[in-house]
Design goal:
- The chain is mostly helical.
- The chain is 77% helix and 0% strand.
- Helix 7 packs antiparallel against helix 8, helix 9 runs parallel beside helix 11 and helix 13 packs parallel to helix 16.
Amino acid sequence: MLTRVQSLRGRSARCIFAAIFCAGGFLWSAGAAAHDALGDQIAALTREIAADPDNARLYLRRGELHRLDRELPAALADYSRARRLDPGLAAVDLGAGRAFLEANRPAEAKSSLERFVRARPDDARGRLELARALVGLGSRSAADAHYARAIALAPDLRPDVYFERAKSLRAAGRLSAAIQALDEGIARLGPLASLEELALEVELARKNYDGALARLDRIFPPTARQETRLARRGEILVAAGKRIEARETFRQAQRLIEALPSRLRQTRAIQRLEGRVRSSLESLRVAGPEREKTDAKS
């Protein structure tokens, strides 16, 4: 990863740039400074291309810079030129596929990325980008096979890859598979809140309320403040039909909120939470004692 590249002048700078490209991408700060830095690099590469116009790799590198600078037509033109000069340069198809995805053109991305995967079947980047293109086309089952292969090839991928895969599976109605994918990420990367939160949502969607409650307890450990956990626990209990237990849980949450210092109670987040708790208690009150008796018997 790279936050700033000062220049591309000279042989050593070109080697650094090539190494960064092969590592899989760049990290740029937002704003005019980043844009200007990219512009300087593009200008430097343009001068190199003028001196060596048949060098496909120079066009590939400039195409990557144009893509990072959100100049997608210019990026695609450079990728096309690089491909004509060197049809065997597989990285062109990866770059073009990414550019098409960023332009919301998944069908064209799919074609480019399929060529890349055929040439580099064990490259996790190509599998991941192809999965994203297939999701964009609604081909979620085919996408999942590529997500799974990308994770197998590079198990230390970022948490959002596991998150993406699980969301795609959930959208396809494959809830058990979504839970399995999230648990795989949690096992490899640790109990990350983002993955546990999505797993909780999926457990609720498949009406596994005990599973949802267990996830909730992992998201909010005993050392954390508990008012939010209790409010969410109450909502899960309502969904599970345990209204008496839910009412007591909401009351516990309300007591904790009321005990907070004034400066905290006046924050927008706590005020919203307090409103949720009061609304839930009112809904349970309106349901009446007869409903609670029924719940107690069940």
